[in-house]
Amino acid sequence: METAKKTVVVVGASRGIGAAVTQHFVEAGHRVFSVSRGAAVAGEWIQADISAPDGIATIKAAIGAQPLDALLFMGGVWEDNAFTEAYDFFNSSDSETRFVLSVNTIAPIEITRAVADNLAQGHNPRAIYIGALTGFDNCASPEVANTASKFGLRGAVQALRLALRSKNIGVTVINPGNVATEEVMLDIAEGRFPPQTPIPMSDLIVSIEWVLSLSPHVDVPDLNLHQRS
Asked: Which residue, 80, 77, 86, is CA-closest to 192?
């Protein structure tokens, strides 16, 4: 039996995880609203800077009253030189800190509120966010803004589950280790990351598809993906 087609919003559709997820859902025949600052790789591009309120308003205006089946927040930013020995908290500016927190923690909350009524019209609607293992105790990294934003996102998801319960919208944050994006593979090849086998992108996409396939009676607040090596 053919899988029913969905209408989804993917945030962060120009690169990395967001680009791969966008491409996957478009190729599977779903309708995709693709949100990013730079040109999206596929789908119906909504050009928006989600670090600012005007960007959130742009997303809402572009979607209008369209029912949605899923919000997939796949975006994320971090400090300059993050995850390398060149990173220095004391040289990271206040504006950089605010930008990282705005994109990684505030924007997911505001976008969710903006499209909640659209999701409420969908069949078994869900909102899925990309977090990180750095959002857990004993896993924090020295990138202060990025780590704080991932802790904050996990907390926001716990609260959003309660806030969206009356609209029957499921909420999940996926917390992966390093995922095999082009950027991560380049970092490994050039020695910015230690030798490792990152999580295949296909495994992350299967995880997203699995959450979307669950019945309305099941919630998965936290889904953690660890590397074996």
From this structure: 86
CA of 131: how far to CAs of 75, 149, 173, 179, in Å?
A: 9, 9, 6, 12
Task: Determine what percent of the chain is predicted with pLDDT higher than 90.
Answer: 80
Q: What is the pTM of this model?
A: 0.94
Question: Which residues have CB under 8 Å from 125's CB, separation 6+?
Answer: 68, 69, 70, 119, 167, 168, 169, 170
153, two tokens: 């996102």
What letter represents residue 184's amino acid?
V
Sign of CA dihedral 112, 208, 70, 29: positive
**Tens digit of pLDDT for each residue in 93-142?**
999 999 999 999 999 999 999 999 999 999 999 999 999 998 898 888 99
**CATH no. for 7-225:** 3.40.50.720
* CA 161 to chain CA centroid, nearest Å: 16
State how beta strands 170-176 and 7-11 pair: unpaired
Domain parsing of the chain, residue ranges: 7-225
The alpha carbon of 6 is separated from its chain's Cα centroid by a whole number of angstroms, namely: 18
Confidence of residue 1 (pLDDT cuts 50, 70, 90): very low
Residue with tokens 């005007």: 54
Strand partners, 174: 130, 223
- Cα–Cα distance, 91 to 115 (Å, whole number): 37
In the DSSP assignment, the letter for residue 4 is P
